[in-house]
Design brief:
Helix content is 37%, strand content 15%. It has 2 domains: 164 residues, no CATH class; 78 residues, no CATH class. It is of the alpha/beta class and 322 residues long. The chain is extended. It has a 5-stranded mixed sheet with strand order 2-1-3-5-4, with helices on one face. A two-stranded antiparallel sheet has the order 6-7. β6 and β7 form a beta hairpin. Bound molecules: zinc ion. The site of zinc ion has 3 residues, from α5.
């Protein structure tokens, strides 16, 4: 004989439906919390990735220590004997002594410029370049995207461009890299129009130079320009003219024109309104202006404001008149 059902085991169908509905509601709530959680994680991930890129693109050195720069010289494959001779000249110029490579003149230029702004770290240059011996590329160099491509195409081309040069990099402890890329004017005339570029995320600058006598000096001017981009400086020309006052090395010179030097981020020597600017022929003719010095953190903004407000004592010391 079966025992009678106890009170407690009996369930009202209405209560059961309510209980099922509650359980269903709880499951739906849980699923919703999981979906929201996943969405928040994705957003957090995207936010962190964005922050990382922002930090990389807005980094400026604190200048407590020298900025180490590896210069990677890349040449086209299969050099002929004339080209090899040029390259030997270049290496004699850049490689100071056995096994020790340096672009000493550029290091000295950075040191002199920083000292003009009153910063003295016991004669230690703010920038120290080391040059890796020239290496042939696997193929002719590739050009950076022009910037007028649709977004996805530009993204793809930028990645191909960065990857191509990164795989040619020789190991170096330097955190900044300048690729000095030589091209043949005879087979790649299009490179003559290509401006050097800097990628702040990978702290890499790309300088293109023709594999001939002219190439080297232009290359050295462009190396300082691209390095300063990596350290936070912006271009200071507009429609191929130097902007005033930031693009002038001596904006308060009296009379203002002709200027004696080119501001390194403007790269022209202004001669007067409506007149063509003198092209820089040697990097000794370039100087770091007050706007650039502020952008790379050599002086603070209050000092920049005082200087452009007319207080010349807030600016750099000037080169003596010849
Ligand atoms: Zn530039």
């Amino acid at each position: 004989m079966q025992p009678p059902e106890s009170e407690s085991e009996y369930e009202d169908p209405l209560e059961r439906r309510q209980r099922d509905a509650q359980a269903q509601e709880a499951r739906a709530q849980k699923a919703k919390r999981i979906r929201v959680g996943i969405l928040l994680l994705i957003l957090l991930g995207a936010g962190l990735a964005y922050l990382r890129i922002w930090l990389l693109e807005n980094w400026t050195p604190d200048w407590d220590e020298s900025q180490l720069v590896s210069v990677q010289i890349l040449v086209p494959p299969n050099l002929d004997s004339d080209e090899q001779e040029l390259l030997d000249e270049l290496e004699a110029f850049t490689l100071a002594s056995e096994g020790v490579a340096s672009f000493t003149a550029l290091d000295d230029w950075f040191l002199a410029e920083q000292q003009r702004y009153g910063v003295d770290r016991g004669g230690v240059s703010p920038v120290v370049l080391s040059v890796a011996a020239a290496r042939p590329m696997e193929s002719d160099p590739i050009a950076p995207p022009l910037g007028d491509e649709p977004f996805l195409e530009r993204y793809q081309k930028t990645n191909e461009f960065l990857d191509f040069y990164a795989k040619h990099r020789t190991e170096s402890p330097a955190t900044n890299t300048i690729y000095l890329i030589f091209y043949r004017r005879s087979t790649h005339p299009e490179f003559a129009k290509i401006h050097s570029v800097a990628d702040r995320r990978s702290r890499s600058g790309f300088v293109f130079a023709s594999l001939d006598e002219n190439g080297l000096e232009t290359a050295v001017i462009n190396i300082s320009h691209e390095l300063l981009h990596l350290f936070g400086a912006n271009d200071k020309y507009e429609n191929k003219s130097c902007k005033f006052p930031g693009g002038y090395a001596e904006p308060f010179r009296d009379p203002r024109h002709p200027q004696r030097f080119a501001e390194v981020m403007a790269q022209g020597i202004p001669n007067g309104p409506g007149q063509a600017e003198t092209e820089v022929s040697s990097f000794g003719e370039t100087r770091i202006g007050v706007q650039t010095a502020t952008e790379i953190g050599w002086i603070d903004d209050a000092q920049r404001v005082r200087y452009y407000g007319g207080d010349l004592s807030a600016g750099p010391t000037l080169d003596e008149e010849e």
